[in-house]
């Protein structure tokens, strides 16, 4: 007979999204119910050049649980230097950090 002193986790562990993530600055709209909607992204490329991305289209939104840490995963589409690309935005509420990974296939 076995028992546990810790409450069972009801959240399923997720595997982290694939790709190279970089920290980004995000301007975000919060609804009255507390949902975060990204509106603008600023990031620095490999050459140190800063870029701004507007008109973000949210394709999907999921609450995830990675290695015991809550995260919000947004699958998005926007124009990067004249080319429409799909990308992932991850928001980590505990550290208030935004990360972005651009799909190489887009």
Walkthrough of the structure:
- With 106 residues, the protein is mostly beta strands.
- The protein has one domain (22-102).
- Helix content is 0%, strand content 57%.
- The chain has strands at residues 22-30, 36-44, 50-53, 57-66, 69-80, 83-92, 97-102.
- A 7-stranded antiparallel β-sheet has the order 3-2-1-7-6-5-4, with no helix packed on it.
- It starts with 21 loop residues before the first strand and ends with a strand.
- Residues 6-14 have low confidence and may be disordered.
The largest sheet has its strands arranged as: 3-2-1-7-6-5-4
Mean pLDDT: 83
Categorize the overall geometry: globular
Oligomer: single chain
Brief summary:
This protein is an all-beta fold. It has strands spanning 22-30, 36-44, 50-53, 57-66, 69-80, 83-92, 97-102.
Helix-strand blueprint:
Layout: E1 22-30, E2 36-44, E3 50-53, E4 57-66, E5 69-80, E6 83-92, E7 97-102
Antiparallel strand pairs: 1-2, 1-7, 2-3, 4-5, 5-6, 6-7
Give the tags.
seven-stranded antiparallel β-sheet; mainly beta; 106 residues
């Amino acid at each position: 007979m076995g028992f546990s002193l810790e409450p069972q986790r009801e959240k399923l562990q997720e595997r982290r999204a694939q790709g190279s993530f970089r920290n980004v600055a995000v301007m975000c709209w919060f609804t009255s119910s507390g949902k975060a909607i990204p509106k603008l992204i600023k990031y620095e490329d490999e050459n140190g050049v800063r870029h701004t991305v507007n008109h973000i289209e949210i394709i999907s939104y999921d609450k995830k649980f990675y290695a015991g840490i809550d995260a919000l995963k947004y699958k998005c589409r926007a124009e990067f230097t004249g080319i429409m690309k799909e990308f992932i935005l991850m928001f980590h509420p505990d550290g208030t950090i935004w990360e972005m990974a651009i799909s190489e296939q887009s």
